[in-house]
Amino acid sequence: MSADLLGPSAAADAGPPVYTVSQLNSRVKGLLEEEFAQVLVEGEVTSWRTYPSGHAYFSVKDATAKVGAVMFSGRRKFLRFEPEDGMRVLLKCRVTLYERDGRFQLSVLSMEPLGEGALEVAFRQLMDRLEKEGLFSPERKRPLPTRPRRVALVTSREGAALRDMLRVLSDRAPIVEVVLVHTLVQGKGAGESIAAALHRADRGLRGIDRAADLIIVGRGGGSREDLWAFNEEVTVRAIVNCETPVLSAVGHEIDTSLSDLAADAAAPTPTAATEVVARGWRELSRDLDRMPGTLLRLTEGRIAGLEARLEAIAAERTLRRPEDALGVLAQRVDSLFERMWREARHAEAARLSRLRGILPRLAASSPGGAVRRSEVELSDMMRRLRLADESGRERKASALRTAAGRLEAVSPLAVLARGYSLAYREKDSSLLRRAEQAGVGERVRLRLSEGMLICWVEESLREGEGT
Amino acid sequence: MNAAKKSASSKKGPENFEEALERLEEIVEELEGGEAPLEGAVGLYEEGVSLFRYCREQLDSAQKRVEELAGEAEEVLSLRSFEDEDEEEEE
After folding, report:
1. Is B44–A299 a contact, with Cβ atoms under 8 angstroms apart?
2. What are phi and psi of B38, to 5 degrees?
3. I want to staple A236 with a disulfide (CB 3.0 to 4.6 A). Which of A132, A262, A444, B31 is the partner?
């Protein structure tokens, strides 16, 4: 009985052999498998369907013909893309026969898309799928911090990209702290490795209280195959799950990876990513350099405003009761002088000479107590400006010098312009406040708004004697 | 000089860069408001200049801080100094 199944029964009259159906199918199967042990077939996929077993059943067709095909799970798992109906493919397969139905079919060993490569198809398919899920949507994007203080670099410890990034950061933004989180960037398991590294850079750093402000994930240029890990679903999902903003920097300018699409922002290269970081700091640096000027301008403006107000008050008082005002002036200036000289004696030589220059002008000060206070403050201000000037940089120093000059310009010399003058005893330059301070025949200098008069005392009158 | 140094050091220095920057911006706003009395304005100016110097120093500090996250499991993560062995060969 079993012999019958193995071969046709020989008829007695040696005519054509008679097969059972099973025998025939078995025979044909053998012939087919021998003849078409491995062939390449080009065609269009139709009716692609998969089963829980992992096997896939479909047909391939061209304009006029069609043939069934099966791809078993053992082979299918090596497919990088998911075949779709209508896709043109090149199959490497053997031809076999499904004995039960007597239908011949292709048993597919491998499959390549025609027109575009397997990676492109896989890329496009995954992109479409994740896109539909909303992972690349603009609403998901968070703004990158303009000046991150701590940046986590998720890349290979050995890669050229790391060295490039470290160089840019240390040259242009040395204030930035860098944490390397090593990962494989290509080859088997790279996607999983990147995903794990991203997780550590995000939650891990947070866990040890060193949360990064920004994660840069990437690698230098390479073939499409080399960059593949950055197109894997596991990588994309890890990026999307990061709480820390992620800047993706994969390969060269022309490469766009799914990582780029999933991240909050993408830089064309790793170097460019670090330049983005450095730019924020450089802008700050520029703004910062304008600070001393701004501070000076604002402070000066404030002082000039107060000065103008005080001058106005002084002028008003002087007009109202000139003698009274002068009396008050004399008294105030008197005590001011004493204070200033006392202070000046203890000061350094430079400061002393500075004060000497200021004192004659203080003598011309307006009568109000507020004015006197402002004078003290003004000279103090100038002293501080000068100190800042000395310890500052050259550029700043010249700005400060200009400012000090301007401050002097708003000094109460203006009072002299209204016709008051200051009298000094020539021999010791002391300011004359009482007639008895200068003896008859002594030389006296009169400081006017413009220029100076040198006079001899002809007569000295006490209060009330002359007027 | 002594007086200036004394007053600068007796003032509480900024805790960190961000704080200094924030304070500096506050000072500019205060001065812009024009409400500060004269002595206050001078004091703000002084403080501003010293904050500026602090920020400038921080920005320019040549110190490069590179660390590597060590450990695979989350509970044993730590940072260690990263040594770039190839740095010498670069360029």
Report:
1. yes
2. -55, -50
3. A262
CB within 8 Å: B49 and A177: no
Tell me which residues of chain B, numbers 62 to 91, contact chain A at a CB-CB cutoff of 8 Å.
62-69, 72, 74, 77-79, 82, 84, 86-87, 90
Task: Decide: A356 and A321 in contact? Cβ < 8 Å.
Answer: no
All structural domains of chain B, each given as residue ranges with its CATH number in brackets, are 13-90 (1.10.287.1040)
Count Cβ–Cβ pairs < 8 Å, chain A vs chain B: 130
Interface predicted TM-score (ipTM): 0.71
Helices A322-346 and A349-363, packing angle to 10 deg: 180
CA A156, A157, A159, A163 dihedral sign is positive
CA distance A284 to A77: 53
State pLDDT tens for residues A399-426. 545 544 444 444 445 556 667 777 888 8
* pTM of structure: 0.58
Q: Cβ–Cβ of B69/A392 closer than 8 Å?
A: no
Q: What is the pLDDT of residues A309-324, one digit of tens each?
A: 666 666 665 555 555 5
- Closest Cα to residue B27, out of B51, B8, B7, B44? B44
